[in-house]
Amino acid sequence: MSTTDTLQKNRFWAVIPAAGVGSRMNADMPKQYLEIHGRSLLEHTVERLLDFPLLEKLVVVLSAEDEYYKDIELLRNERVMLVEGGKERYDSVLNGLEHLVALAHEDDWVMVHDVARPCIRRSDLDWLVNQLQEHEVGGLLGMPVRDTMKRTSAKGEVTETVDRDTLWHALTPQMFRLKLLHDALTKALIDEMPVTDEASAMEYAGHKPVMVEGHGDNIKVTRATDLALASLYIQQQLKIIETA
Known about the structure:
single chain; alpha/beta; Spore Coat Polysaccharide Biosynthesis Protein SpsA, Chain A; 7-stranded mixed sheet; 24% strand; disordered N terminus
């Protein structure tokens, strides 16, 4: 099957879980509403995905207690759908997938992307699709580990130096077939198996996600220092676009 046939057959959707409170930021609002260059993290992230032409719709999953989203004009875009989140990340992602079940085909692709990764590059989205579009399962963006890796005991004592050649930092988006991802997250929830990302749910269900190398500036804003770094990366990316 040609790439064109694949793209015509399988549509692309996105889910952004944004129901967290970002407690490690020590801020007076959820971290997704903290600003970089006059715009919230959420706006930066949503805009970058909306600028990706393959996406049919973007599901933004918000907390039931969220009052900040009402001030975000971008969330009223006709391609954005708002869904109520759950207690944990995978609850929220599953809620987003449930919303897509009635709209999408079970073999359609779903990109799940952290709201706190506002620096995702268009080129990484293109590369992810290029590498996975004919795969039966899907995969995720990642970065090979470059530092020496150590394993320690509970006391913090080094017990082993780990071979880093096959180790990766898992990033997002993570892109999988709708039904496979929905079923994998449902299984993890029923089995009370804690999963930290979509790929780990897929692994638990017996699938083998493909790792696709992305750029290192696709950072997750978790602490206050990350906000300044994300601001720098966005500024650098804009300069590259302006001079292209």
